[in-house]
Amino acid sequence: MILKTAIIALALSQVVSGAKILFFFGFSTYTDRITVWPLVEALVAKGHEVTFLSPYTPQEKEKNPKVVELHPPALVEVMSAGFGNVLERRLENSHESLWHDFREKGTQVCEAIFKEDESREYFKNAEFDLLIINSLHNECAYGLAYKYSAPFMLFGTSSVFLWQPDTYGFFPETSWIPDVTMKISLPLAFLQRVHNTLHPIYWYVTRHWNDFPEMDKILREALEIKRMPPLEELEKNTSLILQNNHYSIEFARTLPPLFVSVAGLHIQEPGKREPLPKEVEQFVEESEEEGFMYISFGPLVNISSMSDTFQNVLYDVLGSFNIRFVWSWNEPRPEKMPSNVMTTPWVPQQTILAHPKIKGFISHAGLLSVQESVANGVPLVVLPVFMEQDYNAEKVERQGYGIRVEIARLKREGLSDAISNILNEPKYTEKALEMSKLFLDRPMKPLETAVWWTEYVLRHKGSVNLTPWSQSQNWFQRRTLDVYGFLLSIVFFLMIVFYILMRQVCLMILAFDEDEEESKSKHSSPQGSPKFKRPGKYIKQKYL
């Protein structure tokens, strides 16, 4: 018995520790790389062979000699083209169309990877035991999983996407959870709920009828797979989804067990954080009791490219406060920048948010920024720009640990009031500290959770047991529309039967009254006197 147990344990350890894992992050941002990188290094430390595909070369501090980095030149070219000035698109109210640009970019990424000779030959000859795929527009990697006969997982870098309820068989709670792609505030009005109901169906149909056929064609030609099932069928084989979100900062929703929360995966332990640059440390330490606020709008938002009027609103508001600001700013310092604002091209964000003198964080509401702020109990002023940032900002304000300001209609009064309230109203800091406790209170650390579930998939060569059977249902069955339609048909049928019966009864009553009246008139009316006729025949002809 002991020998048998030892043999099984040895076999399991060999399967788990020596696995070849491919991280497929073709369509992604550098922020996505930052999010998942701790999992990459943890798996390498446990003896796995990790290959990481992305358009971004790692910074010096992130390089790991044990990780095979793939950066196909065609992929780098496609992703480096970017998406234009996202802040300008916000001001033009065209930022929501970025989601559709991303769809098109996903197909371009697939073509760039698999039509380039070197990368195509690499994937034709490679072998992997597991694929971990960025969940947004990297569906062409499903074909690789099929080629290698390997299970695959998704890494969700945002909230649940619109097409996932129908893909993975859970109910889309569109009556109250806002669309992640749209700028919608709660509670949802009727027309917003109509949009919220129809938009997921639109995305589901668009992916299946437009995106998947294009990717399918690219994969069959590049990998020479002639009998590969359609991508929509392969997608249903998803073993697990590591979701970078947590119930404390997300709308409570019903999810099947294949969704595993690993929010805060990238958050560093206090002893492992990088120190602040000396000049930044000195600047914030000299802030004395007033403290300071930190400002960052992420790498894709370029404030210096905006109009003087727009910039002057920011500078005037910041200069009017008797506290210091540290602004993560990659451009040359503008002459109009107030003296109480320090601009720096780089600052370790997690370190500065953990500083005891920080009073608040002015942010674009990127998910990682929100998580880092919550983890350190720092209240927020959020100015969302694009992607899911409106969705994040809505939750921040609704849960009471921050204030939302519309950047497209930026006014001095609105921004000034928001900053003043964060600095002077204790309720925001108190709520932020409460949220921090909720966010951090878990049975396992996010990284430990991610590693355990990754190896769970490896141990069991997939985990289809975590996917609900409703995945095989049609979209109308999943919403019980066929049942409601059947019940309504019965009600409608009974109403028709009731109407016909009542009509016949009324006709019989009117006919009986008319006959009775005529019979009475024959016996009781004297000759020559006028006869009074009841209007029964007229009523019967006109209304019945």
TrEMBL record:
<dbReference type="Pfam" id="PF00201">
    <property type="entry name" value="UDPGT"/>
</dbReference>
<keyword id="KW-1133">Transmembrane helix</keyword>
<keyword id="KW-0812">Transmembrane</keyword>
<feature type="region of interest" description="Disordered">
    <location>
        <begin position="519"/>
        <end position="544"/>
    </location>
</feature>
<keyword id="KW-0808">Transferase</keyword>
<keyword id="KW-0472">Membrane</keyword>
<feature type="transmembrane region" description="Helical">
    <location>
        <begin position="483"/>
        <end position="502"/>
    </location>
</feature>
<protein>
    <recommendedName>
        <fullName>Glucuronosyltransferase</fullName>
    </recommendedName>
</protein>
<dbReference type="InterPro" id="IPR002213">
    <property type="entry name" value="UDP_glucos_trans"/>
</dbReference>
<dbReference type="InterPro" id="IPR035595">
    <property type="entry name" value="UDP_glycos_trans_CS"/>
</dbReference>
<feature type="compositionally biased region" description="Basic residues">
    <location>
        <begin position="531"/>
        <end position="544"/>
    </location>
</feature>
<dbReference type="InterPro" id="IPR050271">
    <property type="entry name" value="UDP-glycosyltransferase"/>
</dbReference>
<dbReference type="GO" id="GO:0008194">
    <property type="term" value="F:UDP-glycosyltransferase activity"/>
</dbReference>
<comment type="similarity">
    <text>Belongs to the UDP-glycosyltransferase family.</text>
</comment>
<keyword id="KW-0328">Glycosyltransferase</keyword>
